[in-house]
Amino acid sequence: MSDPVLALSDITKTYNKGAPNAVDVLRGITLDVTAGEVVALVAPSGAGKSTLLHIAGLLDTPDTGTVALSGQNLTGQSDRRRTLARRADVGFIYQFHHLLPEFSALENIVLPQLSAGVSKTDAEARATALLDQVGVAHRADHRPAELSGGEQQRVAFCRALANAPKLLLADEPTGNLDPTTSDQVFGALMTLVRDTGLSALIATHNLELANRMDRIVRLDAGRLSTGPA
Ligand code: ADP
What we know:
It contains seven helices and ten strands. It has 229 residues and is of the alpha/beta class. A hairpin with a 7-residue loop joins strand 1 and strand 2.
């Protein structure tokens, strides 16, 4: 069997360690996300979802435990090595789109590809294809402020996938949208993820959305549990 795309092993994290206001956010998290698997991370606010996603995406380091991407243990590696692995393998989506306001939808998806050394022609072709897949190709030349909230998130999904990561990490990707739009935009995200065979760890409060993923893990009091919604 191939290595999991993401393997978290016995991860712990305490903020303000040793201080009276220390917070044990993660108390031993072990989780594998296998190739093509989409896992829902369900947790109450403040439970440590963002901390866990940042550690999984190599934006933060755990106090103890290991993080491996596609079998490569990146714990204790240099910042440069971790940055390269993150750029190559991980796509992020947040609750807010964080698109660059002065660039068009297409340019927002082209720019990360240019940074990765892709030619302008190839980058534009890929960006157009991605926009088409999520149904916003007709908005390619629009700036973020000219797009609806749902369209902005769809563009943000395309940007996250621009450099063909192996793992998608999403923090409440539709949490900022009304229920109907959230449902449609989540559908577009799932289609994109399934079409590309991507693995994903997607944090959500929404149990209906969680139930549309392959598996649910719950984060509570610093530990993960599995089971039905
Ligand atoms: P969630 O994403 O589930 O809302 P977070 O991972 O953002 O939770 O935060 C989990 C807990 O850790 C919260 O109690 C938060 O206040 C605390 N926390 C997060 N980041 C820091 C930090 N940099 N320093 C101190 N405490 C933090």
